[in-house]
Amino acid sequence: MSETYEAASTTHQVGDRSKDVPWYSAELEAVGPAARELLEEYSKIPPEEVVPHVLAIRDRAWQIWPYPCIGQFRFLDLSISLQPAYPRILARLRSTTPPTTLLDLGCCFGQDIRKLVHDGAPAAALYGAELRAGFLDMGYELFRDRGALAATFVQADVFAEGDADALRALDGAVDVVYTASFLHLFGWAEQVRVGKRIVRLLKGGKGGVVFGRQVGTLRPGEYRRTAEGGGSRYRHDGESFKRMWEQIGRETGTEWRVEVQMDEVTGWRNGSDQIDKDGKKWSDEHTRRLRFEVERI
């Protein structure tokens, strides 16, 4: 039996396009070295144009859907490159024949796909899936590579079935799935459904890998949400995340090795403690960053 908690107290709701929310940063103080290198060297954007270009794209994306990761420029983290598994996954992508295939599930702008390409991964072996087609379009504008990037992007709903399932063409064709800031959007049952869908996407047999990061907590359970149709999101600690993959394995006849890291963070951007304008935190002292790697054995 899982616990159900109220989300951290705030007067604001995710889904509100108002810019008067604690997860919208009006200014971009600096672009980190990795993102700046990508924008200047891969996208050929002049150095003095990088910040205004990013700000303009971010504000257009905010009108498509105002996720906190958009408001706080989290897409500039290039989070795939911060995962412990990244050097090993990149080496696998660069060296295997036939090429290792990777799907970024919930890819937002496809920024991690561009990072992989810039680091030497073959673009034709990379796929990105995103619910909101506008984000995929913003990705081409952010990185100025429309018509040049050989990666494949698909507008897809991971819960779609039958003819509406745009991911069907990739079933049994993917070696590695990266998914960041995605599973934590859903409740336990929905996360299990996503996990089972990922199993169908991966090639059969041992060696398939799922890795990523998301919000975690020291108090695992369902957290009520007041936006996006209500319902709840399940936030994991390491043990609950492992239990979930045990369930996924039982229901799919597969077995998985699960590794989880829980990191304490002082804030989700630039060391901020995320205090909103009413003096209330929208995260709490139990919040952690959860990194995971799951491999079929």
Using only CA atoms, what is the Rg? 19 Å
- Shape summary: globular
| Low-pLDDT regions | 267-282
The first-to-last residue Cα distance is: 28 Å
Mean pLDDT metric? 90
Number of helices: 8
Query: Strand portion, in percent?
Result: 15-25%
Query: Helices and strands, in N-to-C order?
Result: EHHHHEHEHEEHEEEHEE
Helical fraction: 25-40%
Number of E-type strands: 10
The main β sheet shows up as:
7 strands, mixed
Q: Strand order, biggest sheet?
A: 4-3-2-5-6-10-9
Write the layout of secondary structure elements.
Layout: E1 3-6, H1 33-42, H2 50-64, H3 68-71, H4 86-95, E2 102-105, H5 111-118, E3 126-130, H6 133-143, E4 152-155, E5 176-178, H7 188-201, E6 209-217, E7 221-224, E8 232-235, H8 238-252, E9 256-263, E10 287-296
Parallel strand pairs: 1-7, 2-3, 2-5, 3-4, 5-6
Antiparallel strand pairs: 6-10, 7-8, 9-10
Helix pairs in contact: 2-6, 7-8
Which short descriptors sum up this protein?
single chain, 297 residues, alpha/beta, 7-stranded mixed sheet, 3-stranded mixed sheet, 8 helices, 10 strands, 19% strand, globular
Textual characterization of the structure:
The chain is α/β, with parallel strands linked by helices and 297 residues long. It has 8 helices and 10 strands. The strands form 2 sheets. Strands 4-3-2-5-6-10-9 form a 7-stranded mixed β-sheet. Strands 1-7-8 form a 3-stranded mixed β-sheet, with no helix packed on it. It is globular and about 55 Å long.
Give a brief description:
The chain is built from 8 helices and 10 strands. It is an alpha/beta fold and 297 residues long.
